[in-house]
């Protein structure tokens, strides 16, 4: 597995934190600097932390610890374990519940035993740093900042953020997608996909009912922003000078942003270009209909397991199409919806065309109902022709 697939993955992209550096509010600037500095340090440690990661089988048991505003995890105190009742600290309970919901989703829906598939223990740390504006997964644990209270609130309050970060762990233990350029954007998209799917599963929402927003609960009420990202409409999550202007996410390949592969530019824009595969999943889920954790989620999960560190958008699109055919039948409505979804973001499935997909559907029974009704349709047309012939003959006789 590539080391670049194992990194410190933060929910807030660099371009938002950098935008806060231009705020007129001195305190907002100060907390942005502190968060960026801490994030850079964490990324510098990612290789050592990943190598040291130990996934001892534990049935996905949870432990939540309190950092007491320190950034030294070793000094944190354990506040709640798997069999413990709720405590007075709301952040501890929210983190505990979020980890559990995500674990249960993967177990019950996708038959996956915790993050690594082998029962990996789930460790969460709350109250990390002072006014730390981020939440991250570092290959071993989930860490939450309290937010600055001016722009961001407590990061434990958003289930989709928790599921997003834990899904980075799932990706590490499956495809190991390299965290840069298209594979990195796909890595981020997979986390957004299952972050939203877990939230929908918890709420019992259909794909049509869901808001498809990521991180809508992490902003304070005074910030004019719907969320960090919108999967339904990438590029529309926010539009405010405080966050650097308009949401920069593209929704199709013709709007893909070619950015430098550096930490400062988000490793080639992994949090930005993820809007393209995000939109593809939204289109597939709503095209198939029903619950996103049904056919759409299973297709994406199986495609993730079949992917490799350097998988790009095209390769992943082809894999989802193939998996849809394997799971639900060649030319099935599910496969047709996946095909149409990628077309909707300007990615063509290799070796397939709309006509070939329709022909596959007909030849494999999807068109059975139409075929069964063909004799009656022929009889109906024959009757219409007979009536028209009789009418024409009558007109001829009248003229004679």
TrEMBL record:
Keywords annotated in UniProt: Hydrolase, Metal-binding, Metalloprotease, Protease, Secreted, Zinc
InterPro entries with a match to the protein in the record: Metalloprotease_M4 (IPR052759), Peptidase_M4 (IPR023612), Peptidase_M4/M1_CTD_sf (IPR027268), Peptidase_M4_C_domain (IPR001570), Peptidase_M4_domain (IPR013856)
Boundaries of every Peptidase M4 domain copy: 90-172
Localization terms from the record: Secreted
Pfam assignment, any one: Peptidase_M4
Occurrences of domain Peptidase M4 C-terminal (ranges): 175-347
UniProt GO molecular function: hydrolase activity
Family note: Belongs to the peptidase M4 family.
Role noted for this protein: Extracellular zinc metalloprotease.
Name of protein: Neutral metalloproteinase
Organism placement in taxonomy: Bacteria, Bacillati, Actinomycetota, Actinomycetes, Pseudonocardiales
């Amino acid at each position: 597995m590539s080391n670049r697939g194992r990194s410190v993955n933060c929910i807030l992209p660099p371009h938002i934190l950098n935008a806060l550096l231009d705020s007129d509010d001195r305190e907002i600037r100060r907390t942005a600097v502190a968060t960026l500095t801490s994030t850079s340090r964490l990324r510098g440690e990612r290789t050592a932390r990943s190598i040291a990661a130990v996934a001892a089988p534990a049935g996905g048991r949870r432990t939540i610890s309190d950092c007491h505003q320190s950034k030294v995890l070793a000094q944190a105190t354990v506040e709640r374990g798997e069999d413990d009742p709720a405590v007075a600290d709301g952040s501890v309970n929210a983190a505990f519940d979020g980890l559990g919901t995500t674990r249960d989703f993967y177990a019950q829906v996708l038959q996956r035993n915790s993050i690594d598939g082998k029962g990996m223990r789930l460790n969460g740390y709350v109250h990390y740093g002072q006014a730390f504006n981020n939440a991250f997964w570092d290959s071993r644990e989930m860490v939450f900042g309290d937010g600055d209270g001016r722009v961001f609130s407590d990061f434990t309050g958003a289930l989709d953020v928790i599921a997003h970060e834990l899904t980075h762990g799932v990706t590490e233990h499956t495809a190991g997608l390299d965290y840069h350029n298209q594979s990195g954007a796909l890595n981020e998209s997979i986390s957004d996909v299952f972050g939203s799917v877990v939230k929908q599963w918890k709420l019992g929402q259909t794909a049509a009912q869901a808001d498809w927003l990521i991180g809508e609960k992490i902003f304070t009420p005074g910030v004019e922003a719907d969320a960090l990202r919108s999967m339904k409409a990438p590029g529309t999550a926010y539009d405010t000078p405080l966050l650097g202007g308009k949401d920069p996410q593209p929704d199709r390949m013709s709007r893909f942003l070619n950015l430098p592969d550096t930490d400062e530019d988000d490793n080639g824009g992994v949090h930005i270009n993820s809007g393209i595969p995000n939109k593809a999943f939204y289109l597939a889920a709503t095209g198939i209909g029903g619950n996103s954790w049904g056919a759409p989620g299973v297709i994406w999960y199986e495609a993730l397991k079949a992917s490799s560190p350097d998988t790009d958008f095209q390769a992943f699109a082809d894999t989802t199409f193939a998996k849809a055919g394997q799971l639900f039948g060649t030319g099935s409505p599910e496969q047709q919806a996946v095909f149409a979804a990628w077309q909707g973001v300007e990615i063509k499935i290799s070796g397939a065309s709309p006509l070939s997909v329709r022909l596959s559907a007909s030849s494999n029974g999807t068109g059975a109902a139409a075929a069964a009704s063909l004799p009656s349709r022929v009889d109906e047309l024959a009757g219409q022709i007979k009536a028209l012939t009789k009418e024409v003959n009558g007109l001829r006789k009248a003229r004679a």
